[in-house]
Amino acid sequence: MLSPLPYRIGYGEDAHRLEAGRPLILGGVPVPDAPHGAVAHSDGDAVLHAVADALLSGLALGDIGQYFPDTAAEWHGLDSRVIVARALELVRERGYAPVNVALVVTLDRPKLGPLRADIARRVAALLALPDTEVGVSFKTSEGLAPAHVQVRVTALLARTETVG
How far apart are CA 12 and CA 96, in angstroms? Predict the structure, then answer.
C-alpha cells in the first residue's frame, strides 16, 4: 500500500446571483454599501463556500452540498463559518491541515480593495493560519456578470506531522 502523500492541493469554486436588498458577506466580512447581496439557502458567503470546497476536494471528500444540502430546511440561513469548520474537521480527521490558501473574488461592485486585509484575517483565523498564508485577489467581470459574485480558491494541505 502506498503511504499518504505529504501534500495535497484542493480547488473550490462558488458563485451566487446577486439581488438588491440582501446583505453581501465575503470571507465572514459584511461588505458595507453593497448594492446587492447573494441569493442563497445559507448566508451566501461565496468565499467561505469555496474555501470549504477547496479543503474537501484536496482529500477527495466531495463538496459542501453533500454535507449541507440546500434542500434541507435545517441549513436555511446557516452561517458559512459552520461549513468551513466542518470541512476543516474532516481534513484534520484524515491527518492533514491547511498550509495556505489563495482566493480570487470576481465582483463588479462595490470595489473590495479596502476589505482585503479583513477578509484575509477572517479566513486565516477560521483555518488557524497566519494572515500571511491567505492570499486575496479581486477581479471584475468587466461588465459580463454584474449581478453575480464568483470565488475560486486553491488550498495546499499538508500531513500534520509535516506542518510546523
Answer: 17
Terminal Cα distance for the chain, rounded: 27
CA pair distance 164, 156, nearest whole angstrom: 14
Spatial distance between the Cα atoms of 33 and 26, rounded to a whole number of angstroms? 13
pTM for this prediction: 0.95
Residue 64: CB atoms within 10 A of its CB come to 25
Q: Which pLDDT tens digit goes with each residue over 101-128? A: 999 999 999 999 999 999 999 999 999 9
